[in-house]
Every structure is written in C-alpha cells, then in structure tokens.
Design a protein that fits this description.
Blueprint lengths: L2 H19 L5 H14 L4 E10 L5 E11 L3 E6 L6 H14 L3 E6 L6 E6 L2
Parallel strand pairs: 3-4
Antiparallel strand pairs: 1-2, 2-3, 4-5
Pfam families: PDDEXK_3
Protein name: GxxExxY protein
InterPro entries: GxxExxY
C-alpha cells in the first residue's frame, strides 16, 4: 500500500469514528478508536511510539512520542479541541523534520466538523 493509499484508509476510518462518536471525547478515546479500527483492517499501528529526534549533523538529541505511527511511515497527530491552531501544525512539522519521517496527518476530532490535513516534508 502506498502512503497516499494509507492516508486514504486513515481518513475514511477517522470519518467513520467521528460519525459514530461525534466530538466531545478526550483525545485518548479517539486515539484508541483509530488504532483499534485500523488494526481490524490489518494496518500496523503503534500508539505513543517513541521517535528519535536528530540534530542537523545526525546527533541524537532526544525523542518524542507520536500519537500514532502507522505502517512505519506515517505520523498521525491527533487533537480533540475546538479549532486547530498554528501550534498544532508547527508541532507536527517539527516532529516530521526532527524524526526524518516524510508524511504526517493532523486530525482534529474535537469540533463538530472533522478536520484532517496531510503534511509532507521534503
């Protein structure tokens, strides 16, 4: 499965979760639901997965924990807030750059309308 196909699966699954659970739950509920449903589809998902952060010269300077790390190639950052903010985008872009992962999705379940946006680091 290509990363674009994988993103489509995550999007479709997120829409189904939002349709059923709606907004109003804590972020962890959506994290567990998305991980559960993706695993049922046969997709490899790791929750709170530690990703190494590298400095520009390749030195390891720490780690952070991705909400979901899907098929060893896609970081999924989840939110459960009224609106996404620039800080949320900056957080995901920082994760992508520092961990040298190419693709990420920012998903907000907290609003009446589901928000999903893909980000790519070149």
């Amino acid at each position: 499965m290509t990363v674009n196909e994988l993103c489509d699966v995550v999007r479709e699954t997120s829409f189904a979760i939002h349709k059923y659970h709606r907004n109003g739950h804590l972020e962890k509920i959506y994290e567990n639901a998305l991980a559960h449903r993706l695993r049922k589809l046969g997709v490899k998902v790791e929750q709170q997965f530690p990703l190494t952060v590298y400095d520009e010269d390749g030195t390891v300077i720490g780690e952070y924990f991705a909400d979901l790390f899907v098929e060893d190639c896609l970081i999924v950052e989840l939110k459960a807030c009224r609106n996404t903010a620039e800080e949320h985008v900056a957080q995901l872009l920082g994760y992508l750059k520092s961990s040298r992962i190419h693709d990420g999705l920012l998903i907000n379940f907290g609003a009446p309308r589901l928000y999903i946006k893909k980000y790519v680091m070149d």
